[in-house]
Amino acid sequence: MYIYLIFFVLCTCANASRMKLIAGHVIFRHGDRTPLASYPSNLIKEENWPNGYGQLTSIGIEQQYRLGQYLRTRYGSILSSTFDPREIFVRSTDFDRTLMSAESNLHGLYHQRNISNNRMSVQPISMHTERAANDFLLGQNDCPIVNRITNEAYQSETFKQLNEFYQPFFEKLQMWTNASNITLYNTQHIPDSVLVAHIHNKAPAWATEDVRKTLAEINNIIFYFSFVNDTVKRIRGGPVIQDIWSNMNRSVHHDTFYKLRMYSAHDTTVSAALAFLHIHYPFQPQYASALFIDLYKQNQTYYVKVEYLNVTDSNKPQPYLLEGCPKVECPLDIFTTIYQPRFPGKAEVECENKPSSSSRSAKAMVVFLSSIVVGLFLITLVTTMFRKRQASVQYIPVLTRDSADKAI
Ligand SMILES: *[C@@H]1O[C@H](CO)[C@@H](O)[C@H](O)[C@H]1NC(C)=O
Ligand SMILES: *[C@@H]1O[C@H](CO)[C@@H](O)[C@H](O)[C@H]1NC(C)=O
Ligand SMILES: *[C@@H]1O[C@H](CO)[C@@H](O)[C@H](O)[C@H]1NC(C)=O
Ligand SMILES: *[C@@H]1O[C@H](CO)[C@@H](O)[C@H](O)[C@H]1NC(C)=O
Ligand SMILES: *[C@@H]1O[C@H](CO)[C@@H](O)[C@H](O)[C@H]1NC(C)=O
Ligand SMILES: *[C@@H]1O[C@H](CO)[C@@H](O)[C@H](O)[C@H]1NC(C)=O
Ligand SMILES: CC(=O)N[C@H]1CO[C@H](CO)[C@@H](O)[C@@H]1O
């Protein structure tokens, strides 16, 4: 009896002070697409892919449709069942695959239509974009300083050592692909071409499981090195997080805000946003993977919760405990204190191509930091060799002599 009473009281209190969802923000990668490029020995040419290179496939359309259905279950408590442009704002990069991904996703999110007295079977939904050259928000504009820092990272000892490590594999890869001079610096499109071909049952015979695993490792290394520098994190990941923060700030100040802001973008956008938040995610984001940054309210206090749906179609996002936050539901004030100082300035200022003022000290810094990273890398390598390939998420992608050898 008493237990029931206590239980009842607890429940009532819990209800009264429930975490209430206020606003959702989602950054996702487009769905399954055709390859972006090829290699000399490839028998599958661009014309063998529906609509050519870099286009959303029917698999990708369906992945996004299902992600939209998941968004309905996730945000159904704050979004009307039919489209209302005052509630949702959709922003996409200016690519066919991301625009079409957003459309497919919205078909899953708004299954109920209500237009022209139901005489039309389509519900148009507005979305916004920006041509790539001006798209600072989702990281598409050309930014010379980012290229310069990336090139500096490529000069680091760690990167050189990794390049050495994969030389025997690259020699094989040159033979298979008929491409010349393959290095970690220029190989990006081969892992992609092979992965996409494999998904569509068109992979060449040499692309065994071990070869694909090694290619994936290489891809992950390139992703890792692309977003390791704080300046790059700020420039490539900062704008979208700042945009999200502004919407949360408007809500807190009782200004007009969107219940859901959706950003349809790329693996690089998702990686950069994760890196900006100091989440060390050492993999290439999968198709239709989605990063959620949601605003909650409880007892007049606002909280930010960050979750990443890291596997296509999994519907099981992983919550993150952010550095400096006491718990997964991070009080907005703390979130603001941590991230506001890292927000970028205007694109023109951030991306300005200034010559490096202190390139010597910058170089010394790179050498110093690389030696730390080399140390970490070697420790990781040795540990994994002893552990015999136990799956684990490390700060740096786990490499083993084992996997490099088998691929050869
Ligand atoms: C590789 O390139 C050479 C020289 O260009 C050419 O003769 C050969 O047929 C190519 N092999 C394949 C498998 O594409
Ligand atoms: C091979 O690639 C590296 C890095 O991309 C470049 O520095 C080098 O000049 C290239 N060598 C040849 C023979 O093309
Ligand atoms: C990031 O790059 C900038 C510009 O080259 C450099 O000054 C800075 O030291 C780098 N930061 C790190 C952590 O390597
Ligand atoms: C937060 O939102 C309020 C109300 O819209 C606005 O006046 C204020 O400038 C915003 N703060 C920042 C730092 O943008
Ligand atoms: C919320 O407020 C209620 C009533 O003021 C209080 O009993 C409860 O402990 C508060 N909950 C939290 C999590 O602060
Ligand atoms: C996805 O996240 C889970 C939980 O953090 C992790 O165990 C898994 O390795 C991740 N998968 C991929 C493909 O990133
Ligand atoms: C689901 C929904 O909102 N249906 C409405 C569509 O429009 C007709 C006519 O305006 C309404 O009667 C429905 O309720």
From TrEMBL:
<keyword id="KW-1133">Transmembrane helix</keyword>
<feature type="transmembrane region" description="Helical">
    <location>
        <begin position="364"/>
        <end position="386"/>
    </location>
</feature>
<comment type="similarity">
    <text>Belongs to the histidine acid phosphatase family.</text>
</comment>
<keyword id="KW-0472">Membrane</keyword>
<feature type="signal peptide">
    <location>
        <begin position="1"/>
        <end position="16"/>
    </location>
</feature>
<keyword id="KW-1015">Disulfide bond</keyword>
<dbReference type="InterPro" id="IPR000560">
    <property type="entry name" value="His_Pase_clade-2"/>
</dbReference>
<protein>
    <recommendedName>
        <fullName>acid phosphatase</fullName>
        <ecNumber>3.1.3.2</ecNumber>
    </recommendedName>
</protein>
<dbReference type="Pfam" id="PF00328">
    <property type="entry name" value="His_Phos_2"/>
</dbReference>
<dbReference type="GO" id="GO:0003993">
    <property type="term" value="F:acid phosphatase activity"/>
</dbReference>
<dbReference type="InterPro" id="IPR029033">
    <property type="entry name" value="His_PPase_superfam"/>
</dbReference>
<keyword id="KW-0378">Hydrolase</keyword>
<dbReference type="InterPro" id="IPR050645">
    <property type="entry name" value="Histidine_acid_phosphatase"/>
</dbReference>
<keyword id="KW-0325">Glycoprotein</keyword>
<keyword id="KW-0732">Signal</keyword>
<keyword id="KW-0812">Transmembrane</keyword>
